[in-house]
Amino acid sequence: EIVMTQSPATLSVSPGERATLSCRASQSVSSNLAWYQQKPGQAPRLLIYGPSTRATGIPARFSGSGSETEFTLTISSLQSEDFAVYYCQQYNNWPLTFGPGTKVDIK
Amino acid sequence: EVQLLESGGGLVQPGGSLRLSCTASGFTFSSFAMSWVRQAPGKGLEGVSSISGSGGTTIYADSVKGRFTISRDSSKNTLYLQMNSLSAEDTAVYYCAKGIAARAWHFDYWGQGTPVTVSS
Fold this sequence. Notes:
The complex is a heterodimer.
Chain A: E1 4-7, E2 10-13, E3 19-25, E4 33-38, E5 45-49, E6 53-54, E7 62-67, E8 70-75, E9 85-90, E10 97-98, E11 102-106
Parallel strand pairs in A: 2-11
Antiparallel strand pairs in A: 1-3, 3-8, 4-5, 4-9, 5-6, 7-8, 9-10, 9-11
Chain B: E1 3-7, E2 10-12, E3 18-25, E4 34-39, E5 45-51, E6 58-60, E7 68-73, E8 78-83, E9 92-99, E10 107-110, E11 114-118
Parallel strand pairs in B: 2-11
Antiparallel strand pairs in B: 1-3, 3-8, 4-5, 4-9, 5-6, 7-8, 9-10, 9-11
């Protein structure tokens, strides 16, 4: 099983600032990596996959990069609606595995 | 508009069974892989099972293999998850999720989730 780790566990950011979230895979997942945003009481929402393609309707302030085992999600200028938990997911191999999440909260 | 509506969750005793359903609309159901992803209370996400658009490929997490069965009925635009021999470790919100292609295991639309509680 591919183990996904994310850092930091919590990121405190002021509105308008840049946020950089990291995701690491225990072995190569090629480019088969997705990022999701989840708010309390809601289902996850796909942000990025492949690992730099924005999903439909996702604002340009969200960007993804990386390959193999190291990936990054960047939010260029945080808006109030961006405070949430972010998960990475590898879909290179089954079982599908998700990282434990990074909570982005208001500084 | 894509919509996924889960049903069938609830309270069940250990060792019991449940069948979850997910009714899809707004897209050509048979053209896309579908999956079940669960989230235990206060925890992260876990891929449970996936099925290809044709239904010819099914995949399971080791934790549910032999106990859960995924299936789909394209005539009803419905995805199913038959869950047997349930234990407390299966307690979670179960999400139905649509793959972005026929054999894609990342998900562009999710249902609202149906809670499953396994307890005596």
